[in-house]
Write a structure and sequence with these properties.
- This protein has 98 residues and is α+β, with helices and mostly antiparallel strands.
- 67% of the residues lie in helices and 16% in strands.
- It has 4 helices and 2 strands.
- A two-stranded antiparallel ribbon has the order 1-2.
- Strand 1 and strand 2 form a beta hairpin.
- Helix 1 packs antiparallel against helix 2 and helix 2 packs antiparallel against helix 3.
- The protein is globular, with a radius of gyration of 16 Å.
Length: 98
């Protein structure tokens, strides 16, 4: 999954929405486009790959923080298994190359 395909995915989301876009949806789209553009503009290839892998992890997971009995609990749910596992393999490959 490249930044270009991510931007194309944003367009698909926008095209498939019925009715008016919500403020939350527009904020999410803005963030996704901004992240993809930042990755594409990074001149250092290694930094670009790291940024893209981190972006893939962010996009493939959902983080929810709740307070239960005065303790902050963080739950991470993987919402896109193939993308998440690809990102983990890439992290291990990058760590092995260092």
């Amino acid at each position: 999954m490249s930044p270009i395909s991510q931007l194309q995915g944003v367009l698909l989301v926008l095209d498939n929405r019925s009715g008016r876009p919500t403020a939350e949806m527009l904020a999410n789209v803005r963030e996704m486009v901004g992240d993809a553009l930042a990755v594409m503009q990074e001149p250092d290839a290694t930094k670009q790959k790291i940024a893209f892998v981190l972006l893939a992890i962010q996009q493939s997971t959902e983080v929810v923080v709740r307070v239960v009995r005065n303790k902050e609990l963080t739950r991470v749910t993987v919402i896109d298994q193939p993308l998440y596992h690809w990102a983990l393999r890439e992290i291990h490959a990058l760590a092995g190359a260092a």
